[in-house]
Amino acid sequence: MKFFIIFIAIIFLNAFSCKTVNNIDNSNNENSFVITGRIEIYGNEPFTYVGIVDVNNVAYNVEPSSAANELRSMQGNLMEFTVIFPEEQIKGYGSLPGGTVTPISWKIIR
């Protein structure tokens, strides 16, 4: 029985370890970049926002909110993100030094 539960848990975790934002065509996107880093949550409740902090300690805002909400649960994992920089950048409250990125895919490294 323990083996079965562990097996189901591994399948469940594997299914959520690599996602792609569905509404973005990421096939052959020459404007995409790879960022290795961790998810951080900024701000105070109820006004929190999600950011990616890369290995060089540069912080990026995550947009759209659907991707940010999915990534929120992966806080603390070292991850590899394929991102694009959208034309519209976040300014003012909630803006991070690296700018705004839209993750098109990601995977957990460890």
> How would you characterize the largest beta sheet?
5 strands, mixed, barrel
Rg to the nearest angstrom? 15 Å
**Principal-axes shape call:** globular
Provide the number of structural domains. Answer: 1
* Number of separate helices: 2
Brief rundown of the structure:
It is built from 2 helices and 6 strands; from the N terminus they run H-E-E-E-E-H-E-E.
Description of the molecule:
- With 110 residues, the chain is of the alpha+beta class.
- The protein has one domain: Beta Barrel (OB fold (Dihydrolipoamide Acetyltransferase, E2P)), CATH 2.40.50.
- It starts with a helix and ends with a strand.
- The radius of gyration is 15 Å and the shape is globular.
- A hairpin with a 2-residue loop joins strand 2 and strand 3 (47-54).
- The protein is built from 2 helices and 6 strands; from the N terminus they run αββββαββ.
- Mean pLDDT is 80; it is low at 15-27.
- The chain is 21% helix and 39% strand.
- The chain has a 5-stranded mixed barrel with strand order 2-3-4-6-5.
Features of the shown structure:
five-stranded mixed barrel, single chain, OB fold (Dihydrolipoamide Acetyltransferase, E2P), 110 residues, 6 strands
Secondary-structure blueprint of this entry?
Layout: H1 2-16, E1 18-20, E2 32-44, E3 47-54, E4 59-62, H2 65-72, E5 79-84, E6 100-108
Parallel strand pairs: 4-6
Antiparallel strand pairs: 1-6, 2-3, 2-5, 3-4, 5-6
